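Consider the tokenized backbone below.
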């Protein structure tokens, strides 16, 4: 996933989660995906945004996101997971 412009890093709050749907929602709302790590068989996503606490509350409440953006991010994340799993199966190291 690409962002149009780099975000300043000084005021960014970070979150590490294994929740795929939360990650899709947050990235669709503008959070930056900073890292993807596999620990054992579990993928962890590290996200950053200035308004991250409010965005997480939106996800658990009635926050809105364009469905096409959400589905596109979800598809991209699943592709990332399956590509990483394929690399591990073929003996390559996971990205992080």
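A designed sequence for it:
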């Amino acid at each position: 996933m690409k962002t149009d412009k780099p975000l300043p890093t000084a005021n960014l709050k970070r979150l590490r989660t294994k929740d795929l749907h939360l990650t899709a929602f947050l990235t669709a709302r503008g959070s930056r995906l900073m890292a993807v790590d596999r620990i054992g068989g579990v993928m962890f996503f590290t996200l950053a945004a200035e308004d991250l606490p409010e965005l997480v509350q939106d996800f658990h409440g009635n926050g809105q996101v364009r469905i096409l953006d959400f589905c596109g991010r979800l598809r991209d994340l699943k592709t990332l997971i399956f590509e990483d799993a394929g690399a591990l199966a073929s003996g390559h190291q996971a990205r992080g």
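DSSP finds three helices and three strands in the chain.
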